Model the fold of this input.
Amino acid sequence: MAMTPIRDSARVALAVIRILNGTLGLLAPGVLARRLEVEYAAEPMAYPFRMFGIRTILIGTDLLTHDPAVRSHALRAAIVVHASDTVSAYAAGASGALPRRAARMTTAISALNVVLALLANRRAP
Done:
């Protein structure tokens, strides 16, 4: 599938977001806990943030690979991953598991990632 400028830009933007957030999760889980307004849970959240971090970095790098099969698989998986993240973030806010502001932020970021994944997966006309 040939990359159009919009598809390619969406793919690269999605990769950058993933690699940056993944690096924070892996190397600085406390930063993510503060951004989510759950500093009190920073220590117990370090392990899942690090798991999230490495998978996110790996998927981000797959989006940047020159191997078309790997890149195509990462693009298809991104839709499901980010849709699931969006629903999870919304549910965490609705249940009170995340503060409202943090839930809105994570839901918006995940929804943006869904849009980028959909744009990156669009077929050329």
